[in-house]
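Technical annex, item 7. During the second reporting period the consortium partners agreed on a shared format for inverse folding records so that results from different sites could be compared directly. Each record opens with the tokenized structure and is followed by the designed sequence. A conforming record, contributed by the partner at site C, is shown below for reference.
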């Protein structure tokens, strides 16, 4: 049993983080070899039509894709 919060399992490629994982300004977090970045802020929708809501939703999807949280086509 480990008495540390963050460790790599022996003989494994699995890391266990039960504490804080801090990525510094110089650091990069990769997912499938692609960097993850913070998604751009999305205002709450004030849409009053389906077309406006669709536009707001598509803008959110684009921001999530750019940040690396969704695959691009």
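Designed sequence (site C submission):
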């Amino acid at each position: 049993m480990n008495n540390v919060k963050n460790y790599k399992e022996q003989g494994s490629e699995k890391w266990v983080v039960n504490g804080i994982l801090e990525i510094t300004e110089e650091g990069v977090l990769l997912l499938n070899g692609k960097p993850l970045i913070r998604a751009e802020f999305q205002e709450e929708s004030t849409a009053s039509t389906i077309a406006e809501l669709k536009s707001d939703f598509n803008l959110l999807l684009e921001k999530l894709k750019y940040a690396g949280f969704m695959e691009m086509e």
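The chain has one helix and four strands. The chain has a mean pLDDT of 89. All partners now use this format for quarterly exchanges.
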